[in-house]
Amino acid sequence: MDAQRNDPSPAVEMGEGRMMDEGELDFGFAQEVSAEPGGEGIVKCFACGSCSAGCPVRRFHPTFNPRRIIRMVLLGMRDAVLRDPFVWLCATCFTCQERCPQGVRIADLMRALKNLALRSGNMPEGIPMQVNLLREKGTLYPLDEFDNKKRTKAGLPPLPGAHEDVGVLLGDLADLGRPKEE
Ligand code: SF4
Ligand code: SF4
User: Which domains does the chain show, CATH number per domain?
Assistant: First the structure.
């Protein structure tokens, strides 16, 4: 008798010898991603690998692989995708998006995954720090007296160190990083 066929909880190979039980999969995840702005075309992917071949981040970080991320989403590996920091490695350079023969908007898809990860409370520490800086100073690189001295030397007018109006625009992001209450 084929023991595997009768296994009530089949497993999915994750690579590196790790197996995943079917019970850990979320079969609605691909649909959830498709419903996010930018995630619409994910089901068109036929796994050709052109995106991964051209990805500059993959060249330096071999564990980052857009094709693999897409397969994981389509298989329903919700937790593995959203809890892993690798979705945040995408530099939004659009190389993959320009090369995809199926018209999958991969860079937009990565942004959709970042948004989903954010809503489930998973993001690098640097993100809320950057948002706080934007809210308080209106820029990620606030200018100080030293910068303005260099500008004066170069014949340029001084610039303000902060842009408070940006903080007003970012008001809705005050709760960034806190998981949504059910
Ligand atoms: S290039 Fe497009 S079709 Fe090919 S693996 Fe990447 S997303 Fe899928
Ligand atoms: S947009 Fe992201 S996934 Fe696509 S090639 Fe650039 S870094 Fe890689």
Answer: 11-119 (1.10.1060.10), 126-174 (no CATH)
pLDDT in tens, 18-70: 677 888 899 999 999 999 999 999 999 999 999 999 999 999 988 889 999 99
Q: DSSP letter string over 42-110?
A: GGG-----HHHHH-HHHHH-TT--HHHHHHHHHHT-HHHHHHSGGGGG-----HHHHH-TT---HHHHH
Amino acid code (one letter) for 104: V
CA angle 146, 151, 140 (to 5 degrees): 65
Q: For residue range 80-111, list pLDDT tens digits in order.
A: 999 888 889 999 999 999 999 999 999 999 99
- Contact indicator for 42, 106 with CB cutoff of 8 Å: no
Q: Which ligand is nearest to the CA of 44?
A: 1
Maximum Cα–Cα distance across the chain: 84
Find the ligand nearest to 95 CA.
Answer: 2
Q: Tell whether ligand 2 has an atom less than 6 A from the beta carbon of residue 109.
A: no
Is the CB–ligand 1 distance for residue 73 below 6 Å?
no
